[in-house]
Input
Amino acid sequence: MDRISFKIGIVFFLTILMVEGVLFYYLHSSIIHSRIDEELDSLQTRGDNHRDILETSYTAETIHHIITMESRTETHVVITDEAGKVVASSIPVDAYIQNIIEAAPADVPQSGLILEDDWQDKKYIASVSPLPENGNVFMFKNTQRVQGLIAKLNRHFWLAGILLLSSMMIITLFLSRFITKPVIKMNEATLKIRQGDYSVALPHLGNDELGELGESIQVLAQDLRHIKQQRSEFLASISHELRTPLTYIKGYADIAGKQSTSPEDRSKYLQIINEEATRLSGLVKNLFDLAKMDENTFSIQKETVELCGFLHSIQTKMLPSFHEKNIKLNLTCDRECYIEADPVRFEQIIINLLDNARKYSDEGTTTTVHAYKKRGRTHLSIEDEGKGIPIEDQAWIFDRFYRVDKSRSSSLGGSGLGLAIVKELVEAHGGQIRLKSEPGKGTIFEIIV
Ligand SMILES: Nc1ncnc2c1ncn2[C@@H]1O[C@H](COP(=O)(O)OP(=O)(O)OP(=O)(O)O)[C@@H](O)[C@H]1O
Ligand SMILES: [Mg+2]
Output
């Protein structure tokens, strides 16, 4: 048996035992009391009845009649005169009976008295009913019969108690098993997770808090598996991303360092080394940004930004690189559009998106930045007429190191971190980013803050 169900079972059982014990005790003593009271009452009433008959006719015949009647029942009668002497009796008057008769008070009330009620230790229970001027009518009943009656009652009580306890024991056993089963299942599942097995499959554990806990454990296990997988993929990608430029740098540095290399070639190689080193430092910077975002040490310092002027200055900054590739960069924006944002980070978002628009568009196309207010929120879209993103890639495009073109062509050699950073930054601003893209036609990234 599991420890927890054992504990719950014991607590259940002891509580029930206590409640049952107290209840049984009260029930038992009150039943016995009323039973004994009944016996005493009926004895008294019987005596009173005899007394009433004798009162109306105190004759030898009546006395004989009463004695005969009583000798056929479980009760006994003893009639005394005013001096206390026995006149007639349905049983032999022994010392014990004589004692009780003598102990009777001189002035017994009309309603009579109980003289002996100790049914447990004495031989008889006894009552007395006074006969005015003619003595007393004593009634006796053997306590053996009363004791037998009570013993029978006790036997019933024992039987009921044992039956109740054993059925309670079985119910407790099942109940505690039933209650603790989900907890035990979850414990097993978490142990498995601790050992690195994330394939936990908990059955449906109901709609209560335990059920919810079970579901949470399952979701956590899946998340954990996802994180572990992502981490190893991430590390693999980083090492890959770092190795490629480093290989170039080492290779070209080797050739450039050779005596036989001509000065023109050398300067060409040095330029490649420079480009690769620049790319490498960009990559490291991006990785550092992402690491800070993951750690949550990254803070957004929001201030009120006038969006049109802000976008205009970015446009001015980006225009030369767009012109170089013969791509138009247009800006349309609603007047008086203010947002709460961190200007440095927000600029990083837009530059990243514009950089993509430029990189993945052909010459002669147009990129449009459009800012407007809609239902109290600010929408900012960046639309290009570039090559678009295939439907099957769209779900992954914000993942780290994800690129549509898996090969690293030198002209478009991004690392695939740009959009991951953009998404983190937009979310850190409390906004959302959406993507609409049609391969061959163009792409729209829309930010809503
Ligand atoms: N405007 C776009 N048009 C077409 N494809 C795009 C566009 N923006 C992004 N992509 C695709 O999404 C991929 C991921 O973009 P992301 O900005 O994250 O990385 P990157 O541009 O390759 O590298 P980095 O931005 O880190 O220098 C790109 O490699 C490209 O395939
Ligand atoms: Mg990019």
